[in-house]
Amino acid sequence: LLTAPAVADDAKSTAPSYTIISRSPSLEIRFRGVSLEAAHTDAQQNRIALDLDTPVDSKLFDHLQQETSDWLDMAYGGYDNAVLHARRPAQFITAKENGGFRLTITAAPDSKLAHNDALMDNLQKIDAPFVLKGATEPQRASLFDRIGQFFGIK
What is the DSSP code (8-state) at residue 8? Predict the structure, then answer.
């Protein structure tokens, strides 16, 4: 009598691993051999905690951090949890897939640029009465260029 071996769930049939699908404009990682139970991001959205369905060797996340150091400044795993910390404010999207899950990390909209735009608007509003009274148009343009360079506005 011959019997077929039991077929394990796809997520459990291989050792936990990852593949980097894309680095730009987002970091996209596909995890295999482990399923995602839950994901939690912090209030600033630069960190995500992953609850996994099986223990994972911490070396997996050590290698992930080394390989994606342009996106992640920290990644560690312990037992059935992992934490990833993005180098800059980020948005995290997870999706369960057959045999694992996908994690996409996208840079968050830059709130500093919005702040700089508001600052420039305010500087232009006070321009005539206070800051640049009597200045010529080229002098004004030069000052705004220098202010823009200071704040990283082009």
Answer: P
The whole-angstrom separation of Cα 144 and Cα 63 is: 46
Which pLDDT tens digit goes with each residue over 58-81? Answer: 999 999 999 999 999 999 998 899
3-state secondary structure 19-84: EEEECCCCEEEEEECCCEEEEEECCCCCEEEEEECCCCCHHHHHHHHHHCCCCEEEEEEECCEEEE
| Tokens describing residue 110 | 């830059």
51, two tokens:
């609850």
Taken as a whole, the chain contains a residue count of 154
Q: What is the pLDDT of residues 89-125, one digit of tens each?
A: 899 999 999 999 999 999 887 645 444 455 555 555 5
- Inter-axis angle of helices 137-150 and 111-126, nearest 10: 160
Determine phi and psi for 57, rounding to 5 degrees.
-65, 135
